[in-house]
Amino acid sequence: MADTDVALPPLRMEELQHSPSSSSISSSSVSVSNSSCPSSPSCSSSCSAHQQHQQHQQAPPSPSSASSLSSGALIDPAVAEVACQEVLQKVKLRDGEEPEPEQEAEPPRPLANGTAAHHHHHEEGGAGAGKPPRIREEEDDEEPAEGPARRTQRARDVQSKQSWLLRLFESKLFDVSMAISYLYKSKEPGVQAYIGNRLFGFGDGDVDAYLPQLLNMYVHMDEDVGDAIRPYVVHRCRQSVGFSLQCAWLLGAFSSDMHISTQRHSRGTKLRRLILSEELKPVGRGRRQHAPALQVGPSREPGERAPSNPSVSLGNGLKRTASNPKVESSPEETVRLTPQREFIKSLMGIGKRLATLPTKEQKTQRLISELSLLNHKLPARVWLPTAAFDHHVVRVPHTQAVVLNSKDKAPYLIYVEVLECESFETSSVPARIPETRIRCTRSAENLPDCGVTAGERSGNVSTVPNYDNDDEAWSVDDIGELQVELPEIHTNSCDNISQFSVDSLTSQESKEPVFIAAGDIRRRLSEQLAHTPTTFRRDPEDPSAVALKEPWEEKVQRIREGSPYGHLPSWRLLSVIVKCGDDLRQELLAFQVLSQLQWIWEQERVPLWIKPYKILVISSDSGMIEPVVNAVSLHQVKKQSQLSLLQYFLQEHGGYTTEEFLCAQRNFVHSCAAYSLICYLLQVKDRHNGNILLDSEGHILHIDFGFILSSSPRNLGFETSAFKLTSEFVDVMGGLDGDMFNYYKMLMLQGLIAARKHMEKVVQIVEIMQQGSHLPCFHGSSTIRTLKERFHMSHTEEQLQVLVEQMVDGSMRSLTTKLYDGYQYITNGIL
Questions:
Q1: Domain PIK helical: where (predicted)?
Q2: Distance CA 677, CA 669 (A)
């Protein structure tokens, strides 16, 4: 029975001659008669019959074989089908394909040429409805190699790929980075629409990290991408005022790259107008009575009724709602975005007016005056978008603001007092406390049951210097004797805040004021300064040096003690840099790349340190930057201390063997290695000492990423080294033969290896932002290609080690670095 041959009808023989002989199905097919369905009892007999057929493929079937078929015993068709399916499964396993599971919804049918007789309606309906079809090679190979069969095969391949994509999109590995990548690269509208819906499943913070990429795709890519993104953006705008404004600002900035005629009717401009029109109100939320958004002018008279919808504008010539019927009659929702827009507009207007003044002294005086006027309109339902928590702005200490170093423009740094709240949209705005009518003092002397004796109070008297003017803080002729207040010495609930008018300051009813001679104040200040390693002098040409050098904790305490809101437990101090005339979109791109690299190095456990600072793009020529606290530039260090970098470290942190110095040295190495890699990967230029900061813990950090990738100052490409590594940097690390210098090179190697493992995450951030952009960093057509090349994906680790050694050596010996520093000193006075 095992040697029994199966005769093939002439029609089937002709079909097999036209079928591909190399397919997996032809190697395992068994011919079965439609009428009698004869078959061998085993897989071996079936394969033997097919092999014999292949050997005599050109000859017609012999009569003897036909007679043997008619005289032989017939095998049950079900047994033959099982045998053939086993062969098919083995062939598929051999070719590395996933075997097809058995169908339970439909009983098996007789086979023809080894192909299961499945019908299309079985997959389109019933148990298989809604599921992507499987790949069925046996049916494909039965079709002719050309014509409709090839198109059918391609369609099935696409369906198979979509089924695998669906499994990926629904897996736990699918994150926002992958979603943005597929949304950008996919050309299938169905895939794009699915990812657009998938965005709703991610956290708001995760999506916000890629918000510039989403909005840039919305503005500059085709309609299918825009239609996929729009529902998510509109939904979030309905939920959040902050998100709405951020989207409106970014859409305006990205649309500025378009031609003016196209820009007016572009998709981005239309969405921006929709957001600013206040039509995107929260769905299903009742009307909310807002607290006064901004108060203009003096406080109301006693008994005067508060307006229901006060004026919200911060511009000049604005009036109260009570005298402005247009504002009064507007609906409640119209004040949802306006207060914050006007607050930001006021800050930008100050920067533009400062740029017209010639000297820093004049700019500083004008800045203080402008901020003093702004304080009359606070508190309000406004906030700093760079902060990480909800709050309301209550006061700007105008005398603390400083103008930063800039040759042509006037960026300025301000400190902002805020009160933390649950939601800046729904929480009530704090009441205004006029500065001229109150003072804050400790009332412990009036509360004997609090456990504070008179001796304890007299032994805990401190002095607070007056920094609220630009004159000398202390003068014997002007001061003589000063009355100072008691500090906070405990947090008992019975320790309250007393508010006094100006007249009560000199009242005879106040109990036992404490007097301290001016000589004692000077002595105590001298003792305090003696413990400070380095002090910065006030420089009219660089007024920010003293403000930046002051430790942040001391600054917070000092401003809080002089603030009418400082006694409130939710009081916080924030700072922000306002820039006008600069396009911060490149800064925003650098911030995203630095944040991604920071995440990569944390995941790979590489101890590199960087400090990405937040960037807020307001328009194509204005924005706000989060300052780095407790940090000064290397230029300011050299100018104020007149010391080398190593000597400054020794003066700040102690001798070579002290724990503080060793810790600061290690921090310097960790940060220097990280920023060396960043400068190499992003090709950061304009690396003079004014753009490199040093913080109080020894970390070095780079700022001002205005020249990255394909751009350089004046497009000269003068700085040719991979990164800036001066001899002073090497001295802090212990010299060329020091262990810390070798550690620096090892960290660079580890950081580069870790970064190239996640190269696609970094590259896609840059690649998407190149779409439709006219930024200088995307000049030329090779920006993305050269960025990928700098990751050296084809190098071994040994080759990467050699590369790092070469880059370090070349950067130390770079002549262009020294020449560029000299050029900056001659032209801008930067040391």
A1: 74-277
A2: 12
